[in-house]
Amino acid sequence: MDDARSDLLTVIAGIGGVLVFASVVGWALARRYSPQGESSAIENLNDRIRAWWVMTLALALAFLGGHVGVIALFALCSFAALREFMTLTNATRADHNTLAAAFFIVLPVQFWLVWIKWYGLYSIFIPVYVFLLLPIISALAGETRNYLIRIAEMQWALMICVFCVSHVPALLNLNIPAGRGVLLIAFLVIVVQLSDVLQYVWGKLIGRHKIAPKLSPSKTVEGFIGGSLSATLIGTALWWMTPFTPLQAAGMSLLITMMGFAGGLVMSAIKRDRGVKDWGHSIAGHGGFIDRLDSVLFAAPIFFHVTRYFWKLG
Amino acid sequence: MAIQGMRSGLAQFSGRAITFFARAVTAVRPVWQGLDPGQVRQRIYFANHASHGDFILIWAVLPPRQQQATRPVAGADYWQKGRLRSFIGQDVFNALLIQRNNGQTTTGPVDLMAEALDAGASLIVFPEGTRNQTDEALLPLKSGLYHLARQRPQVDLVPVWIENLNRVLPKGALIPVPLMCKVIFGAALHVAPDEAKDDFLNRARAALLSLKPQPEAT
Where are the transmembrane segments (chain A) (predicted)? Predict the structure, then answer.
């Protein structure tokens, strides 16, 4: 077994250990405070932990499946996220062909480009080509009401749910030692998701000052600082799974947690605008796919480009 | 006999495949507002109609035991055209097919539906009479619903709002677009003994419209 493989198994075992611990705590809390399921907070916590098991299992299988597994998993996430996003847009009957093209042409092509490692095209396909070509389809339908709003929303949906999501598997294309691409994805996902969880935990423990009460009442200054610092510390401690030195890993972790926080805030603003609490209902306790992915979405492209630039890779 | 068995096996498989596909495209989710899904009762589900997939979504979210006993009422002109459609309509979903003339239902169909109810089936009906292509949320309801309710007053009339399917598969479109759908079941109603036709139809229409999700004011 090579280095990268054994590191990957170590990481998976480590996450498994954290989840076992979380499950035991959740079980003990439920036994003590919510034996009949009367505390919705504890029930929600346990729903979330169960969903984490499923998500971890899906990720672990994808990682062990290598390139194909990771691209397939994130293409499916992208599909689910795009479906949630498009549902909340103003797209009408006149945009039917545009939507069909977004789901059945743009999305598969983007992930295929990542698959064949055509960096020059997958980094501009949606921002340039789709941006210019897609509105033509809607224009041909002849419906001008809300036209600008409709095409802007659809482009936004594609940027967030397809372009940004595709930058997670694109990390596999970076020119780092063989087998380490998967670990880079694991690093990103672990730091970003831990940061979300730890911000929530710190916020619950010592949170006093709300950052953006209108957007996201649960986000507090204390939670934000405590969560991002502790996630950065954990990210630094995980430097061995990345091509970074400990100091570089610390900088990268800080960058990831900042972008992740921004992602959560921006996607919340969209939900509030549209008057919904969650993007969907597919993941028990969490909401929709975008609710779980919002921070990853924002962190992935920046993490990808900074890594590519500073380590002169790919 | 063997051919019959194969046909019904194929029908059952097709039913599963169609509902799986419907779920994959729409992630459809039932919302029970004033109706207990576990309670097994004979019902007439009446829903808004925007697409040929409407009854499939309702069927897909019903508890399995109720699926078997629930028959969609559909237009014979569409569901008898071609072997595939008539297989899906009659073998897979056991649809009660109604002859339509100019979208107006005659008195015959109500008797057919009453017969099916007497045989123990629940029904899915679309009282707008035709698929709604307008910007109106809901067309006026046809009187057939009233006559059926009069003939079998003991059966629960359940309003069902199908949200978003008109965007997934608008009339005339061939490819469904993946958007999330909800099927919202409201509290059952019954026709009052002295209720006039128009009063009842207005009440039923209002019950259906009240299920339509409004963007939450924040």
Answer: 7-30, 50-77, 98-115, 121-142, 154-176, 182-202, 223-241, 247-270
